[in-house]
Amino acid sequence: MPNALHRLLRSGIVHVLFAFLAMGSWAVFANRAHAMPLPLYAGLVQGAISACLTLFLKSVIDWLSKRFFGSVRFWAPPLIACLGSASILVAIHAATGTPEILKTIAFPLLVSTSYAAIYNYSISARRGFDA
Fold it and tell me: Where are its TM segments located (predicted)?
């Protein structure tokens, strides 16, 4: 892979922009049955939340994985991250009047929780079971 492309793919800004565009687009789609501008508002809100969660999710998993030991370290950090993300998503979408909250958050929550679980497993497995 060319060096410039490799740097681009590792860029935090690229990840944040991708999260904003991908999950914001999903929210517009999930709310498409409602009158404009509600789908656009849902997309902007979800895009902003996803961008912020992308910035902080890795750090949260890093922090949480150091606080649990044994087998609990493999499931507790992603579960806590999922519950925290779900709470933030529901609260903000409810406050901003998103019509289809469950449809709007389902896909972004699945993606972020999957990332959290895979990332957590990768760092926990490197440390060993009891470390």
Answer: 40-60, 72-95, 101-121
